[in-house]
Design a protein that fits this description.
about 280 residues, alpha+beta, Helicase, Ruva Protein, domain 3, Tetrahydropterin Synthase, Chain A, 3-stranded antiparallel beta sheet
Length: about 280
């Protein structure tokens, strides 16, 4: 058997950031060959993944990145098993690398496609980074979802990193900061849809018909009934969770729609993620 020195074990640990005993076992199995030992350690990823496959991943962290001019933004959610891992530096480094690659790279339609990419300046792929992370942490970790959008776009991540919002608009923003303000509003007020168009068409028409009949029953002139109904539909939209109809959280004297209009913007869409949510 090869003589495994403490210096060799330490050198392998410095390269892999894995526990000393794991590094020593790998060196023993590789008969002192550091490169073979690294391959042995990499193989452990599969064993860990299989062993913990059924474990719940109810913790995690959401990452957001945007270009300085707000022209594009990206968001990534990574789930794990425990709070210490969710808030740890290792997960932060992995998630930051992933969201920056999603933002600045060629784009990706799935987490697997993203992990197949290698960031500029790195000699390893995101998949390798991910596998090394799992080897080190020994906990089931899932890159659950990714999203990238063109701007004007802003985002907000809550201080616990478990709620993330990306808000997309169109127009020339007179006040770009409002994009983040609306994203914060979405995080707090939790609208269900962005615009009335996102509601069920039949349900909206049914409500309009009901309000119209009520207005007619009061004897209001026919020529103002539509205006009355339009006014009362605003309350319906608020009740149904339409973002544009809600009072703006930063200034509740105006609606979100009005606040955006004053800033030269129209809402396009938003996505609101909660760690572990749909």
């Amino acid at each position: 058997m090869a003589d495994i020195t403490a210096a060799a074990v330490k050198a392998l640990r410095d390269r892999t950031d894995l526990p000393m005993m794991e590094c020593k076992k790998a060196l023993v199995a590789a008969e002192g060959d550091a490169e073979k030992a690294i391959e042995i350690l990499k193989e452990q990823f599969k064993k860990i993944a299989d062993k913990r496959a059924d474990n719940a991943t109810e913790e995690g962290r959401i990452f957001f990145a945007a270009k300085d001019d707000g022209s594009e933004a990206a968001m990534v959610e990574i789930q794990c098993e425990s709070p210490p891992v969710a808030t740890g530096e290792s997960l932060e480094a992995l998630g930051t690398a992933m969201v920056n690659q999603l933002l600045n790279g060629p784009g990706a339609d799935s987490p697997d496609e993203l992990m197949g990419q290698t960031p500029d300046g790195s000699d390893v792929s995101l998949k390798t980074m991910y596998e090394e992370f799992v080897n080190k942490i020994r906990e089931k970790t899932v890159v659950n979802r990714i999203h990238r959008a063109a701007g004007p776009v802003g985002g907000y991540i809550h201080h616990d990193y478990k709620t993330g919002v990306m808000f997309q608009a169109k127009g020339e923003a007179k006040n770009p900061e409002i994009l983040r303000d609306v994203a914060m509003h979405v995080a707090a007020l939790q609208p269900t849809v962005c615009t009335p168009d996102g509601l069920d068409t039949a349900a909206v028409q049914e409500e309009r018909n009901r309000l119209s009949e009520e207005a007619k029953a009061t004897g209001k002139p026919e020529n103002i009934i539509d205006k009355i109904v339009d006014g009362r539909m605003k309350n319906y939209y608020v009740e149904q969770g339409v973002l544009l109809a809600q009072a703006f959280a930063k200034d509740d004297t105006k609606s979100v729609e009005k606040a955006l209009s004053e800033a030269g913007l129209e809402a396009v869409s938003f996505c609101r993620w909660q760690v572990g949510g749909a």
